[in-house]
Model the fold of this input.
Amino acid sequence: GQNIDQPTEMTATEGAIVQINCTYQTSGFNGLFWYQQHAGEAPTFLSYNVLDGLEEKGRFSSFLSRSKGYSYLLLKELQMKDSASYLCAADNYGQNFVFGPGTRLSVLP
Amino acid sequence: NAGVTQTPKFRVLKTGQSMTLLCAQDMNHEYMYWYRQDPGMGLRLIHYSVGEGTTAKGEVPDGYNVSRLKKQNFLLGLESAAPSQTSVYFCASSYYPGNTEAFFGQGTRLTVV
Done:
């Protein structure tokens, strides 16, 4: 079976750093995706990790530990526009994507 | 480049009515997916297709049917709508999902009364 877990909500201050965790238990796992979804909009791709370690892309970084079934998304220098839901997803035997429940991040001034 | 286009964007149905949601992609992707998104539950897979002429059930397929007669189109049908099918529906497409991301349509907000 597939099980992906994330915190439901997080709050942080503009300019700060926030880490959003994701734990997963899936079979046939190839890699872990992170998507951003603003309210009322479609999800958009942020990052993909297939190997253990940290991938950095501007203000956003994503980490994966395959042995621990754990990933996190790190957002630096938070901006108001980063207020959104962040979804982690795992591919399922290369057939489709399994999504976690999403973490709603609120950035306060 | 349009990407993934869903029609309609909004719809209100009465219980028992039927409708079809259309998803079209112009990226020559083999894989296409239909998800529903409900508050607090994330995206749940309804049906998916790994190529033209193929379909497969996802996590929540009951009450829905799909067809993939052409590679660029993936249709989602509700034969007899129920209030429990009130949701936001997203279509997505990708190359091989094991190493590439999915591209999403803008969503269809469906209300069944």
Remarks:
- Chain B has a mean pLDDT of 95.
